[in-house]
Structure formats: C-alpha cells, structure tokens
From TrEMBL:
Gene3D superfamilies attached to this UniProt entry: Laminin
UniProt name for this protein: EGFL6 protein
Record-stated family: Belongs to the nephronectin family.
Gene that encodes it: Egfl6_0
Single GO BP term: cell differentiation
Subcellular location: Secreted, Extracellular space, Extracellular matrix
Keyword terms: Calcium, Cell adhesion, Developmental protein, Differentiation, Disulfide bond, EGF-like domain, Extracellular matrix, Repeat, Secreted, Signal
InterPro entries: EGF, EGF-like_Ca-bd_dom, EGF-type_Asp/Asn_hydroxyl_site, EGF_Ca-bd_CS, Growth_fac_rcpt_cys_sf, Nephronectin_domain, NOTCH1_EGF-like
Molecular functions (GO terms): calcium ion binding
Length: 197
C-alpha cells in the first residue's frame, strides 16, 4: 500500500487510505482529534484536549473517577483544589489538567511550566518557541514566513531583496541570506552597505 502524502499519525492500509492511531483524524492522519467535542462527551465535568488524547478534570469538591466521571467528595472539598482531585493510595492529591502545568507550592493551584526556558520544547531550527498557559507553540523565526509548500506548512525564508524590506543603501546591492540579508556597496563605492560613499 502506498500513501502519496504519507500517514503522519497512522498507517497506510491501501492506495492513499490511512488508518489513524487513536486521537488523530484527517485524510493523512495529521490532525489532532478533539475528543472533548465528541458526543457523548468523554468527561462528566471538564475536558481538556491534548495532542493525540484528552484529560478529564472535575470541579472543586469532586474527585475524578475512572471513565471520566466525577464523584462528590468531602475530602476533595476540604483540600480545595483548583481543578479537582484524585485519591492515590488513600491520599488526596490535587490535579492539573495539562502536562504544561504543575502544582504550585500550596499544592492546590496549578502554575504554568515555561517549556521555552526549561528546554522541554522541541522546535525546528527555523521556528522559535512561544510559551502559553499550560503549553507552547513554535512560531516562524524572524526572517521566515509560514507557507503551504509541497502539501504541508513550513517556515520559508523571506527574500527581503524581492519584498523590498531591506535597508540597503541606494548605491548598494541586496543579497538574500537564509533568514536575513546582506548589503554590499556597488563598484566604485565604499562602506557598510547601509552607508555607501
């Protein structure tokens, strides 16, 4: 079986037919399935979609049970967790709905983990990391722009010489480089390329 565009999160089952792994959808299995939007809803109270999966959490005073249900719990209400709690080996523990969040010093509220500064984030060379609450995303580096090229989105070098966004001197030539540009004074002129005399 050959799938021309490939199956990103799945396997090729027939000519251009992908069978997606759980949590993924689309013709090429390249889209995350938002389980929180499914009917019936997988969680009784609150649902947070994650890459390839989802997480359930309960309102304060409720305990997360197997299967995404929430049970009223006196102990949970007493602990006063921000996102509900679970019982582990007889001990009540507050929960955070995302791997990008961690329990704060008080053990009840969730604080953001900055994946960009902690080195947890994985972005390709032409993308830079932008932290968000509970997660992060990879944005094109300066000098690159997001374009749909050969059936997928990628960060492509901006040719400042063509787009006229360079600051080269009138008597200089603009030379495009990967992610930037250079200015070189024309013959008979001297200088930095930004100033030519």
């Amino acid at each position: 079986a050959i799938c021309g565009h490939g199956c990103k999160y799945g396997e090729c089952m027939g000519p251009n037919k992908c069978k997606c792994f759980p949590g993924f959808t689309g013709k090429n299995c390249n889209q995350d399935l938002n389980e929180c939007g499914l009917k019936p809803r997988p969680c009784e109270h609150r649902c947070m979609n994650t890459h390839g999966s989802y997480k359930c959490y309960c309102l304060n005073g409720y305990m997360l049970m197997p299967g995404g249900t929430c049970a009223s719990s006196r102990t949970c209400a007493m602990v006063n967790c921000q996102y509900g709690c679970e019982e582990v080996k007889g001990k009540v523990q507050c929960l955070c709905p995302s791997a990008g969040l961690q329990l704060g010093p008080n053990g009840r509220t969730c604080i953001d983990i900055d994946e960009c500064s902690s080195g947890r984030a994985v972005c390709s060379f032409n993308r830079r990391c932008v932290n968000t609450f509970g997660s992060y995303y990879c944005k094109c580096q300066l000098g690159y722009e997001l374009k749909y090229v050969s059936s997928h989105y990628d960060c492509v070098d901006v040719n400042e010489c063509v787009t006229n966004t360079h600051r080269c001197n009138l008597h200089a030539e603009c030379l495009n480089t990967e992610g930037s540009f250079k200015c070189k004074c024309k013959q008979g002129y001297r200088g930095s390329g930004f100033d030519c005399a």
